[in-house]
Amino acid sequence: MAKIKLPRSAPSLDMTPMVDLAFLLVTFFMLTAKFRVNEAVPINPPASHSEKILPENTLLVTVDTAGHVFFSMDGPDVRRNLLKDIATTYKMTFTPEEYKRFSLMTDYGLPISKLHDYIKGGEKERGAMDKKATGIPIDSMANAPGGELGNWIFYGYKQKSIHDQQNKIPRDKQCRIAIKGDGQTNYFKIKRVIKIFQDNNPAINSFQLITNQETENLD
Hints:
two-stranded parallel ribbon; 6 strands
């Protein structure tokens, strides 16, 4: 008697859950990812074995290979109040739109005399100015120890401290000071920047030096 052959059906796999999961992951990464901020100058810090990660609440001073100094500080409200202090000190006037534009910027590395042009310029114009930047003056003839950089540090740290106190930021998450220098930067330039921090009122003696993570040689 002949055997009855049952019809065979090809196995199927429902991919709908996998597609849903893929889109959920893409959406998650899009909402949580932070774009890397363009730096005014490329910096290649020296390597070290340190595994500490730079916190977000940071006041950063960058020194390139030529010894040019750049200032950076996060927080739109803090940056807006910083610019108000700078405007008062140097008797400058800024429009509400200029305050808004500055609050969204990152590094700044030009003399105060070029601040207006830098804020008013578009991204392309600011990029061109960054390439020709001579750094923030660090001489002691501009109303503060450390010149104009001394004022940026003094008012930046002041506004960071006010912000942290008003928002009751925990001590371990309050503003950190960091210096980022290229591995080829003259040591005396870094030492000069450290001295400006220490000459501030109040003196700032606690800061981090940014380095690249050194990889182990497995050869």
